[in-house]
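BACKBONE GEOMETRY TOKENS
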Amino acid sequence: MRIEQRVWRANTGWRVAASDGALTPALVLFFAAPGTLDDGKRFADLRTIYPGAAILGCTTGGEIADVDVLDDTIVATAIEFAHTRLAFAEATVDGDGGSEAAGRQLAASLPRAGLRGVFVLSDGTHVNGTDLVAGIQKVLGPDIAITGGLAGDGARFVSTRVGLNANPVPGRLAAAGFYGNEICLGFGSFGGWDTVGPERVITRARGTVLYELDDQPALALYRNYLGPEADNLPASALLCPLRIHPPGKPEAALVRTVIGIDDAEGAMMYAGSVPEGYVAQLMLGHFENLIAGAGRAAARAAIPDARLAILVSCIGRKLLLGQQIADEVEAVRGVLGEACRLTGFYSYGEIAPLENSPFCDLHNQTMTITTIAEA
């Protein structure tokens, strides 16, 4: 397994950041700042540089190139495999109601024989990530690890894009399937946020839209917690995610992050489902806990001789950590070591198996890591 990584900046164009030498990649992963791909020229560049590779990527809330967290760039990582076979699939998301169907369609397009794992990228603003993952898993079953993330649009939440062998467009999802006995995949996901305030019950919700907590408007509650930052909604709500779990089952908790608000309805819109009857509690982050959480995710994802780690971290973590954001990537490097190349992006949602469970789900406000090696 050999790797080359390039970074595009407006003032320098494409530059090779790291390379194992001349290679013939089967896969190029790219993560691009919003706007950098609008004219199609950068994607055309990648097709010229890597003519025989499948090219898969999305827009972001920030790009990761080794230990650097970047903005306004494109990070492209080319991967040559010695033995591993790949297959690819794509589908269109037709609103929240079509997310599960799109997931089933995506999974059904991947041959099942020899499949070891799937890496998924999805539109981040017009999808129910919970239903998307459920649809994929209904077809593939619980023994195939599904990882990946929802595309980002900085802190704007207007338009996110995904592309497979084409310039990215809104409403798309795409996946790479890894095949064969030689491929080794690891995964880990961890948050590091702390709960604050009382537990409340979700008393009115529909799909990904939360209307009421304890019969009170959810948006009013957020405004009260955010104080002066309420004027910056929905971006400021990323600093205050929501922890949810079924009644009496805190061990099954998930975190949900806001991707929009509805002032007229007093509602909050999330990247994943917020079921009625679930217990909910607001969360806040502390720098040291978030950074330590990234290290814990890396420890869970660590596998022998890992050559590549794909980091999908939440845009909310980036906004909170600010200038210290590179510290969480450094924490990953400290666990996985110098021989493991890092790439990734800041997302609107992270996809990974649940802890101590074969089932996958959408996570928010986590550092989620997929590690890759070949035996």
User: Anything to note?
Assistant: The chain has two domains: 2-190+288-374, 193-284. The two ends are 9 Å apart (CA to CA). The chain is about 20% helix and 40% strand. Residues 193-284 form one domain.
